[in-house]
Design a protein that fits this description.
Elements lengths: L1 H8 L2 H41 L1 E13 L5 E4 L4 E9 H10 L3 E5 L6 E6 L1 E3 L6 E5 L2 E20 L8 E3 L3 E2 L3 E7 H5 L3 E6 L9 E6 L1 E3 L9 E3 L2 E6 L1 E3 L2 H56 L1
Parallel strand pairs: 1-4, 8-12
Antiparallel strand pairs: 1-3, 2-8, 3-7, 4-6, 5-8, 8-11, 9-17, 10-16, 11-15, 12-14, 13-16
């Protein structure tokens, strides 16, 4: 029995079957490993290609102006510009999130007047390209000027509908500093604090008012006022109309009383005079009668 078992395992067909099974197992194992490796390589390649592919994004960036602000005032340029950034997807995404670059106009070498200037970028990665919209801007450079002016309070009305009276307004700031381009500052006529007064106001008014610089035509000018606001107080008191009306009514009543009393007195005097005249006429008549009777006798 033991010899037959050993002979069975030594037969060629049995060994061939075992070898075939082992070969199939090895083939499946190696093939599976290669497929997994290929899938991994494909995934890595796709990720790498996604990271290395180009991407574009348009950003809204503030515009910086390079100039000596102590000497000059610049006007006419936009506050924001659009920048189209193109490059590797990862860099573009990072730049879009951080916005760690700037767009600027270099005016440091320009003289006062109007100029056309090309915009530039700074701090942008070298692998990225940018396109600024607009590429050029028009600016007006003017010498800087600062003056001191008094604050004028302007009220929306001087009369109230309820008989109350406005007092003299008071501002806690008497003078301000006005700064701007020389041409614009030279146009400033007044610095006003405008206060709207309700027509039915009865109590004192206190307002914080924004100051405005206006020219001779009342137009607001583009200058910087420091400080920008002031606190205005306006006293309101009862007017003299009510007291005058009461005084006039009382005087009218007194005059009417005097008129009535005088009319009563005059009527009394007239009645007494008429009664006296009547008595006198009666007495004269009686005297005539008595004299005539004595003559007859």
């Amino acid at each position: 029995m033991g010899k037959d078992t050993k002979g069975f395992f030594r037969r060629k067909w049995f060994l061939r079957i075992i070898s075939l099974i082992l070969a199939l197992f090895l083939f499946m194992y190696v093939n599976g490993s290669k497929s997994g490796f290929l899938r991994q390589n494909t995934r890595n390649n796709n990720q790498s290609s996604a990271l290395m592919s180009n991407k574009s994004v348009t950003l809204r960036m503030p515009l910086d102006v390079t100039i000596d602000n102590n000497k000059y005032i610049v006007s006419g340029y936009p506050q924001y510009v659009k920048v189209k950034v193109t490059g590797p997807s990862a860099l573009v995404t990072t730049t879009s999130n951080t916005q760690n670059f700037k767009v600027y106009a270099d005016l440091s070498d320009l003289t006062p007047g109007k100029h056309r200037v090309k915009l530039k970028t700074s701090g942008l990665n070298s692998e990225l390209t940018s396109k600024i919209e607009p590429q050029y801007i028009n600016v007006n450079i003017q010498p800087r000027k600062t003056i001191t002016m008094k604050v004028t309070i302007r009220l929306s009305t001087r009369d109230l509908d309820n008989g109350y009276k406005l007092g003299r307004p008071h501002s806690d700031i008497q003078t301000v500093q006005v700064t701007g381009s020389r041409d614009e500052v030279n146009k400033v006529n007044r610095i006003i604090a405008f206060v709207a007064i309700p027509h039915d106001a009865k109590d004192n008014i206190a307002r914080q008012v924004t100051l405005q610089a206006i020219d001779r035509n009342g137009q607001t000018l583009n200058v910087v006022i420091s400080p920008t606001t002031t606190n205005v107080s306006i006293p309101i008191s009862a007017g003299s109309q009510s007291s005058s009306s009461s005084d006039s009514s009382s005087s009218s009543s007194e005059e009417s009383e005097e008129t009535k009393s005088s009319s009563r007195t005059s009527s009394r005097n007239d009645s007494s005079d008429s009664s006296s005249e009547t008595s006198q006429s009666s007495s004269s008549i009686s005297n005539k009668d008595s004299s005539s009777s004595s003559r007859n006798q």
